[in-house]
Amino acid sequence: MSDPLLRVRDLRTHFRVKRGFPNPETVTVRALDEISFEVKRGEAFGLVGESGCGKSTAGRSILRLVEPDSGSIEFDGEDVLRADKARMRALRRRLQIIFQDPYSSLNPRMRIGTALAEPLLVHGIMGKAEAAERVRDLLVEVGLPRDAGIRFPHEFSGGQRQRLGIARALTLNPELIIADEPVSALDVSIQSQILMLLRNLQETHDLSFIFISHDLGVVRYFCQVMAVMYLGRIVEKGPIPRIFDEPLHPYTVMLRDASPVPDPTARKAFERIEGEVPSAINPPSGCHFHPRCKHATELCRKVYPKWMEVDAQRGVACHLYDPASGMSPKP
User: Fold this and answer.
1) The pTM is what?
2) Do 58 and 48 reside in the same domain of the chain?
3) Within the chain, where are the H helices?
4) Which residues lie below 8 Å from residue 115, measured CB to CB, with a gap of 6+?
5) CA–CA distance, 105 with 144 (Å, rounded to integer)
6) Looking at residue 309, which CATH number applies to its domain?
7) Quick check: is 322 in a domain?
8) CA-based nearest residue to 247, from 298, 212, 295
9) CA distance 157 to 123
10) For residue range 219-253, what is the model confidence (pLDDT) as tens digits?
């Protein structure tokens, strides 16, 4: 078996922010607390969780758009956190990102053709004429007119702008793309088109993805493996079919059962996720999920559960999981 393209080990990213008025105090936001996972070549790996769980911070930390506090990020055998500016510039040709809001990542005063050609010129890969032809080919590949490069960002619809964001990510022929909620702001019909486009591009270019989303249905369609995050930590990970068929963490059970099904006549029993996500500034003691979990015990309230490798493919962090029986509480 080949080595993973990306290895993340014990990644921690905390932010120091000031709050309060008129005498502000500095507090620590625990955005990521020692998360670990791997992404294989050609694999789509999903990061799933409610807003504020740290999944977007994980993506930005891997690219060092925000600097992690500790841990390790190994991309194709190279330590990303030890890379200097020159090496990071080279690495970012192979690591790209698709943002949730493509409009905010495009210069509104710059024509699309110029914006897409810019990385090719900055990295000295092509001359202007060759870059312009490359841009026209990219536009066609993502389903836009070949002459769309003469237009400005405001002249495109939301779905078309996301196609532009995808084209921008593809410009330098990356190996890994971090897709940060790429379809969450789109209509359902447009979502399916963008997901089909991403899947086709994955097969055509042999791309690996980290697909960040709060929508389990979208992740189930696009990814092969996923990790469930809660308040800065991974609570469960494994192959998509096994997690959906037999979730091991109560939070995963609730997320799965709360996700809609494409059948208006279907009825299913599900357990509502009560309460709000606790603050990452002052997380609960013990298991962070215990205030919202009906199965919580005194141990859950006092001690954070250790990560358990269920087998070569699956893992979970839950006191309620019984390794002997392979069972965990179900609603």
Assistant:
1) 0.91
2) yes
3) 55-62, 85-91, 112-122, 128-141, 158-170, 188-205, 216-222, 240-245, 250-258, 298-302
4) 106, 107, 153, 168
5) 18
6) 3.40.50.300
7) no
8) 295
9) 29
10) 999 999 999 999 999 999 999 999 998 999 999 99
